[in-house]
Amino acid sequence: MSSLPSITTGPFARAQGSIVLPGSKSISNRALLLAALASGTTTLSNLLDADDTQVMRKALRQLGLSVSDQANQVCVVEGCGGRFPVRDADLFMGNAGTAIRPLTAALAMQSGNYRLSGVPRMHERPIRDLVDGLRQVGADITYESQEGYPPIKIASADIAIHDVVKVRGDVSSQFLTALLMALPLVAKKSVKIEVIGELISRPYIEITLKLMARFGVLVSCPDAQSFIIPEKKSDAVYQSPGTLSVEGDASSASYFLALGAIGAGPVRVLGVGSNSIQGDVAFADALSLMGAQITAGEDWIEVTGVKNASGKLNGITLDCTEIPDAAMTLAVAALFAEGKTRLNGIASWRVKETDRIAAMAKELKKLGAIVEEGPDYIEVQAPKNHADWLSPLEGIDTYDDHRMAMCFSLAAFGPNALKINEPDCVAKTFPAYFAQFAAVVS
Ligand SMILES: O=C(O)C1=C[C@@H](OP(=O)(O)O)[C@@H](O)[C@H](O)C1
Ligand SMILES: C=C(OP(=O)(O)O)C(=O)O
């Protein structure tokens, strides 16, 4: 498929309509792996069909599992009862953190020989803390080129469970997620995972624990840093729940909620709401702090413009440690706010699809915003007047980062048409993003 070099869109003044959200990436990839490891058949509905879930489905097939083609967002997985049929495989994980990290841990428990690699950026994204955690139970993992980064090689090893496995939580929560999902496979006795230092992105751990519970494994948390995995009672630890319906993606919702605020609305997202298990629904609270008018039901959220007398959003200072993905949307929404917006607790942006703090700062400046960045924060001040907005001829660069492309679509509500380069990178989690965007803006 050929990819678009750029799109030019806007300027728009109004956003109105409703969007059925694609399935959550975080839930989809966890559900695929747990369904593969379980005994029994699992029918997954509303599964995300995008680059990140395609690499997971393909890898599971390479590992000998039956994973159906996706028709109408439904995918049927025949579980293997904890032991992958294929003992030797070379797996390409694209740039999907939710695929490579949990799969690495599950494969390290398999007594097989595996190699995992990805796109060049994946080879710059850290995996050391996970490898260090897995080595504590005897896993044999080596780095193929740079220490601490994929590609990695897993060799067959005797796994021996200790009472405690320690893992750092301040670079990515996905390392803890990976250990949580994999260790039950080998837990001949109960094992405690202890998080050393700060645990960022904690709501993603809640997603992990809730999905593990759906597949029959209950982890207890005696305190904020400890997770107790129960002793395994049979060979097949995970049991299929039969069917599992994936919620809409709360991070994908953030773009449309922001549009409802800056484009007067009403814009309604269908698929996430007050019943959601995703931490990124808290984006709605952040947007409300900025002055957006928000209502919600169990599985929908709606934004109807701004409640402030000024008719504009207001800047906020917010700790975004728990909502790293949706926080990017706040940084671009800040273009439409009076006063500064400062987002703290976002150091992890630097090790994601790109260095997101540097990329965000550079591209916001191209539009005339005043931006300050630090190791773990960004501060954004909107252009003062319409006349102060800049219209960069070279366009907004997206750095092969889906969220850069989706966030910057909001800037088409500035006074000028906007050119966004390489917009097809949205395929990582939301292939239809720009079509859905076009359907609500005018
Ligand atoms: O576990 C998950 O599903 C995710 C955790 C977060 O990563 P970090 O824990 O690295 O912040 C988030 O940014 C990512 O998009 C999805
Ligand atoms: C950080 C992200 O992805 P990944 O799951 O690859 O970490 C993201 O989707 O914003």
From TrEMBL:
Gene Ontology process terms (BP): amino acid biosynthetic process; aromatic amino acid family biosynthetic process; chorismate biosynthetic process
Subcellular location as annotated: Cytoplasm
Statement: the UniProt record of this protein carries the keyword Lipid biosynthesis: no
Chain ranges passing through the membrane: none
Signal sequence coordinates: none
Pathway annotation: Metabolic intermediate biosynthesis; chorismate biosynthesis; chorismate from D-erythrose 4-phosphate and phosphoenolpyruvate: step 6/7
GO cellular component assignments: cytoplasm
Gene3D superfamilies cross-referenced by the UniProt entry: Enolpyruvate transferase domain
Residues annotated as binding 3-phosphoshikimate: 25-26, 30, 172-174, 201, 325, 352
EC number: 2.5.1.19
Chief location category: cytoplasm
InterPro entries according to UniProt: Enolpyruvate_Tfrase_dom, Enolpyruvate_Tfrase_sf, EPSP_synthase, EPSP_synthase_CS, RNA3'P_cycl/enolpyr_Trfase_a/b
Segments forming domain Enolpyruvate transferase: 14-435
Active-site residues annotated for this sequence: 325 (proton acceptor)
Single Gene Ontology MF annotation: 3-phosphoshikimate 1-carboxyvinyltransferase activity
Keywords annotated in UniProt: Amino-acid biosynthesis, Aromatic amino acid biosynthesis, Cytoplasm, Transferase
Entry similarity comment: Belongs to the EPSP synthase family.
Oligomeric form and interacting partners: Monomer.
Annotated function: Catalyzes the transfer of the enolpyruvyl moiety of phosphoenolpyruvate (PEP) to the 5-hydroxyl of shikimate-3-phosphate (S3P) to produce enolpyruvyl shikimate-3-phosphate and inorganic phosphate.
Name of protein: 3-phosphoshikimate 1-carboxyvinyltransferase
Organism: Polynucleobacter antarcticus
